[in-house]
Prior knowledge:
- The first copy, chain A, is of the alpha+beta class.
- The first copy, chain A, contains eight helices and twelve strands.
- The A-B interface holds A 76-84, 86, 98-99, 101-102, 104, 107-108, 141-142, 144-149, 151-156, 158-160, 203-204, 245-248 and B 76-84, 86, 98-99, 101-102, 104, 107-108, 141-142, 144-149, 151-156, 158-160, 203-204, 245-248.
- The structure holds a DNA duplex.
Amino acid sequence: xxxxxxxxxxxxxxxxxxxxxxxxxxxxxxxxxxxxxxxxxxxxxxxxxxxxxxxxxxxxxxxxxxxxxxxxxxxxxxxxxxxxxxxxxxxxxxxxxxxxxxxxxxxxxxxxxxxxxxxxxxxxxxxxxxxxxxxxxxxxxxxxxxxxxxxxxxxxxxxxxxxxxxxxxxxxxxxxxxxxxxxxxxxxxxxxxxxxxxxxxxxxxxxxxxxxxxxxxxxxxxxxxxxxxxxxxxxxxxxxxxxxxxxx
Amino acid sequence: xxxxxxxxxxxxxxxxxxxxxxxxxxxxxxxxxxxxxxxxxxxxxxxxxxxxxxxxxxxxxxxxxxxxxxxxxxxxxxxxxxxxxxxxxxxxxxxxxxxxxxxxxxxxxxxxxxxxxxxxxxxxxxxxxxxxxxxxxxxxxxxxxxxxxxxxxxxxxxxxxxxxxxxxxxxxxxxxxxxxxxxxxxxxxxxxxxxxxxxxxxxxxxxxxxxxxxxxxxxxxxxxxxxxxxxxxxxxxxxxxxxxxxxx
DNA sequence: CGACCGTTTGAAGGATATCAAGGTGAGTGG
DNA sequence: CCACTCACCTTGATATCCTTCAAACGGTCG
Lengths: 248, 248
């Protein structure tokens, strides 16, 4: 369903939670040193190639995952082979807490978009840490609310914005994680996404993504070079978002 | 933006939390008798006419609301006058906890769809109750996860289902709260929704709702009588949802 | 009655999907 | 080293769903 389903067994990797550079920027830095040790001891470090399934929608949720490096996509499907990408999980972020909290099954599948290292934290450990550390609990709850609000925003956009504006919006977000400022001031955005992936993110088709991208290029909004999108002027891109907004 | 903006000041109503029939079926029955007394003393009971604004998107969230009778709709808008109905809140349900948890502004507006009684519970009280009652906290968290999953489901449906199937889906849910089984076995569904409201729920236009509804009537899926939709056979309606599913 | 809100219906146009074909580039095996 | 394959990308032609604009209808409440 994703790309060339690289179903290699994951390699067990070795990296420590104490040293994890990501930790200082995410929920886990609410942990005390002792708690970090407990986490480090209980978590299962993993390494996947690109296009690997980390967990499957519908199967019982047994814990959360923390992305150490690489990118994971959360994909939700229906009974008929259709699916959408709900969001990308960049390095440093944790996913799966909502399904873990509710103690239910995975509401989406997780697949790696590139070579990815991540840690699995079993529910039992998660619950113990949450029970003993109110701050950790509060942070994950906040993150959950943010995810929810973001989903609501998506619903609003899908209802009112045409593909072109949604794509502009997507590029605006992608540049933060996958953009690199060049010497000439342009921003080269190279996300690990196929046209199909972008289509799945925006609720449209791959052909439409290709067409829209090239239409925007013809209008001077950006340049396309293979999987890389070159942004020359963010204000012009922002204008694409505003443009389609004739009040009703 | 809703209906004829009935901006009457809300009347302060008088009903007790102890006697509230709704309480036994929602989160609040996790409270002890003493806690219920505290809630009852601190909450602000309100009564609104139809089409009244309970709270406004963007303004600071100062607490949660519990719907005692009637129906509330949560509407999210953008800067350009567009808006969608995210969900309906039927009697017995509480809303606003996600914004309250995060301590932020209202991510959506709430408007009454009919004459509605509700209670306002200030954040301060909410926080105290949550801090002292883990079960209450757990229940609201579960509810939040359910709302989030429901939003994700909506995104999937908007991406893949045509209006007709989404409408069938909506009717399927509406019948649970607003349907009445008649002697002849048919189900009369009369939700407090205009065509525009339904359109806002499905991310489409009112004309499309009217047309689709009548098209379904012509196909014998249902009957339309003003604002009432008469369902004769739920399996046929279910079939409408399945129909549009040619796997990709 | 007459104004108003909501609903219905028609006609036309547009955005996007669908179907189909060809192109490109990287990896693979002869 | 080249041909082959496979995934991904592009592009064109056409179809369709839905929107938009416009007009008329119906109930309801002053």
